């Protein structure tokens, strides 16, 4: 018998916080479906983030029904034990195991969902459910609601409304608890340690794919099940492609390498980007541009505190990077005019920050009542200014062609300011070069 590696009090506490928002309602969360191709090739499974957030249950073909104030209040539907099938696809908790370990009121086989779910929804006034998250479960639920509509119409109660719970759950997930901060801090520490391993390994002639393998090995050796997202391992001009995916080119002497990669630990993701020289030493031009970018990034990190907003950080980023582009003769003209015309987007075309948590671009709205959201203690966000100079960009100095630099850290907002969760990953020129000498 496998036992859960998480304390169930964590998930029960989250449900208790959520209960006040679900009066006379039912929240339904369906697990992510298994990914099976070519008939019997099973790909690695990751649970739906919200399903895990409220249950800690990591099997596919399962669902949570949460009905605060009703009996039973918390119900799991899970796959039944099946020794023959488990020989092929691995252990299942089954009904009895799930009831024993996951601290819910009732557990049923997923095979009985069409019989049991109508009973659980018969006395609620609305359903919280994300349509299109699991098309198979969508079909089952819609059939059940259609049947319930007839009985509700006889009592003049109208149709059963369906509300997407993502915004509600996103509000909870934005504000990290002490346990979640510790998990997130560990994800960032492991990510930083893996970046250092890549810095120590890189050399002219090595393939980007081999460096990706070094990162994966490093995070898994430290207790991670997976990376938080597909890593970007971009040597030379590949770094000017924002979401470079191939990771299959040979690293060349004299080039820079951009590594954007993060570990996922207990479903919380790191997201770090570092740039370092393939041969271990920055050239004079690389050093000049990198140091200017680093100064911008560090100044932006220093602005993170309660009361500011991601929009304010973006405005400051555009201002600082436009100044840099003018200074490096990438742009010509008055700064304000260039910003108004968005000329900076030739070399910087993304946002400087996003929420970070159980997803690399995590849940949580950016606007509140139509205004930019104010950052609060417990939020985690990235700070990642970038500069991307295509080798074919017209009118730019030759020495800058093909240079892509993005420096990204993960920042926890605290009561008094911030904590850089990814601080163990070197980003000063001298520190990077020192690591690469060893």
Report on this model:
The strands form seven sheets. The chain has a six-stranded mixed sheet, with helices on both faces. A three-stranded antiparallel sheet has the order 9-12-13. The protein is of the alpha+beta class. The longest helix has 24 residues, at 178-201. The model has no long low-confidence stretch (mean pLDDT 95). It folds into two domains: 8-171, Creatinase/prolidase N-terminal domain (Creatine Amidinohydrolase, Chain A, domain 1, 3-Layer(aba) Sandwich), CATH 3.40.350; 175-436, Creatine Amidinohydrolase (Alpha-Beta Complex). It has 13 helices and 21 strands. It is globular, with a radius of gyration of 25 Å. The protein has helices at 8-19, 49-55, 83-89, 94-101, 113-121, 135-154, 166-174, 178-201, 208-221, 284-302, 310-327, 335-340, 429-436; strands at 25-30, 36-37, 41-42, 63-66, 74-78, 106-109, 126-128, 162-163, 226-227, 232-235, 256-261, 263-265, 268-269, 272-277, 367-368, 371-372, 380-383, 386-389, 403-406, 409-413, 418-420. Helix 6 (135-154) links the parallel strand 7 (126-128) and strand 8. Helices cover 37% and strands 17% of the residues. The two termini are 44 Å apart.
């Amino acid at each position: 018998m496998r036992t859960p590696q998480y304390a169930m009090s964590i998930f029960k506490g989250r449900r208790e916080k959520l209960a006040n928002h679900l009066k006379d309602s039912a929240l339904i969360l369906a697990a992510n479906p298994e990914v099976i191709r070519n008939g019997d090739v099973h790909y690695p499974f990751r649970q739906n983030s919200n399903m895990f957030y409220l249950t800690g249950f990591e099997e596919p073909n399962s669902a949570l029904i949460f009905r605060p104030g009703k009996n039973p209040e918390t119900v799991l539907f899970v796959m039944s034990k099946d020794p023959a099938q488990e020989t092929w696809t691995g252990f299942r908790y089954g009904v009895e195991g799930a009831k024993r370990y996951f601290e819910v009121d009732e557990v049923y086989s997923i095979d009985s969902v069409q019989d049991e779910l109508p009973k659980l929804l018969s006395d609620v006034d609305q359903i919280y459910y994300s349509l299109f998250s699991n098309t198979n479960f969508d079909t089952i639920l819609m059939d059940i609601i259609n049947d319930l509509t007839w009985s509700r119409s006889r009592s003049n109660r109208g149709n059963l409304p369906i509300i997407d719970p993502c915004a509600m759950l996103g509000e909870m997930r934005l504000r990290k608890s002490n346990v979640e901060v510790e998990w997130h801090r560990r994800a960032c520490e492991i990510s930083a340690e893996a970046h250092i391993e890549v810095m120590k390994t890189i050399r002219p002639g090595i393939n980007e794919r081999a460096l990706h393998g070094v990162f994966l090995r490093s995070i898994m050796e430290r207790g991670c099940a997976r990376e938080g997202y597909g890593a970007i391992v971009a040597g030379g001009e590949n770094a000017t492609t924002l979401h470079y995916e191939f990771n299959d080119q040979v690293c060349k002497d004299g080039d820079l390498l951009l590594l954007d990669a993060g570990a996922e630990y207990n479903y919380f993701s790191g997201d770090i980007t570092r740039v370092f020289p393939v041969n271990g030493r920055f050239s004079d031009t690389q050093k000049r541009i990198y140091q200017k970018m680093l100064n911008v990034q560090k100044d932006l990190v220093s602005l993170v505190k309660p009361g500011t907003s991601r929009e304010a950080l973006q405005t400051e980023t555009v201002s600082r990077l436009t100044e840099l582009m003018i200074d490096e003769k990438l742009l010509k003209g008055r700064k304000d005019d260039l910003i108004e015309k968005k000329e900076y987007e030739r070399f910087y075309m993304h946002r400087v920050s996003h929420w970070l948590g159980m997803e690399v671009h995590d849940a949580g709205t950016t606007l509140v009542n139509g205004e930019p959201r104010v950052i609060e203690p417990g939020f985690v966000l990235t700070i990642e200014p970038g500069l991307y100079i295509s080798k074919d960009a017209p009118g730019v100095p030759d020495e800058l062609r093909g240079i892509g630099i993005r420096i990204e850290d993960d920042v926890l907002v605290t009561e008094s300011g911030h904590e850089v969760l990814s601080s163990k990953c070197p980003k000063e020129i001298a520190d990077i070069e020192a690591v690469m000498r060893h």
